[in-house]
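Sample pair:
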Amino acid sequence: MKFRLIVMNFLEYAVWGAYLTSMGTYLFLHGMSTQIGWFYSVQGIVSLFMPALMGIVADRWIPAQKLLSICHFLAGAFMIAAGWYGYTAGDAVQFSQLFTLYTFSVAFYMPTIALSNSVAFNALVKADMDTVKDFPPIRVFGTVGFIATMWCCDLLGFQPTSYQFLLSGALSIVLAAYSLTLPNCDIKPAQANQSIADALGLKAFALFKQKKMALFFIFSMCLGVSLQITNGFANPFLTSFGAIEEFAKTFGVQHANILISISQICEALCILLIPFFLKKFGIKNVMFMAMIAWVLRFGLFGAGNPGAGVWMFVLSCIVYGFAFDFFNISGALYVDQETDTSMRSSAQGLFMMMTNGVGATIGTLAAQAVVNHFVNTPAAAGADAMTIWSGWQSSWFTFATYALIVAVLFWFLFPKTPVKKSVKVDEYV
């Protein structure tokens, strides 16, 4: 059973890794550099409602493993259509057609992340396994799958082409078929006296009446602004150095995806450090560390280069593990210990909505505006490569400044919160 769930998790995130970090380069090279933000923000937009909607369907009408299959089939079909359109259109690819097909694919893919977790938990329980102990090692293979397709797209030369969409779509179709072989998940008919607010998890919004929870969710949104910026713009930034003779043949330019994948590798490793850091420093300090890590993530991108300064890019990728994991895990723990058991699941959903939904959407669109201002200006069309590099530097330093402001405000405004002894930190790793 563990092996079967490892395969599921590997494919689940391999679908995403095929295009998430390299799509920006494809769009940049095909005349859509000013619209990269829309492609990444739509993931946040659909995350506001599709996971919750599909969750209700899985609970009441369609077993989770079957709904996982349906969603992956539709996501794969639309992604293959997007890739085929990009392939046949060549340099004449149009934003409206590609974006429409891509949006439908993402709309059906995003709910599968939660559905795959539900399928895994169900399978482990039915096999009399410990979900707390056995799931994390299985989930790590999702990150391995993500890295694997990042490397495939890099080494096969898919980064500047629409083949990355075709690869993602094909893997999604494979997982759609594979999902039907997994253990059946029971459905739970709606209770007669259950209100619409209970069914949709809307009661969690009452947490905003508490000052400390309101502050937490606001800062979660502010930090969520940073989540998709490097996914959308790091790859086109690195490949833009190809226009500078000094850097054109460097590893970082030739294999941007492999360089960026250090971020995902460190993300997996940093999970192991979280129990120690939480017990040693407390939740507030760990979340603050994550915010400072985001400052370094952006600042090092702005200060480095693929030549003698490539170590700054590598260090930026290393600190990403702290930036991503430390806030997500400690944030989930904070929500768990500060909310009543009757709404913990809904509160966790609200936490994800504020970070990956509202925050990430605002962040990618705002980042696009910044890049448009400094890089994609009318004057840049005829500018030399060094001038464009300067524009990228200004963009990264702007992002770093924003992250620093959020970190400072968090330090002074957010109350200190110790980890309660009754909470097992290891359960969140």
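Residues 41 and 361 are 4 Å apart (CA to CA).
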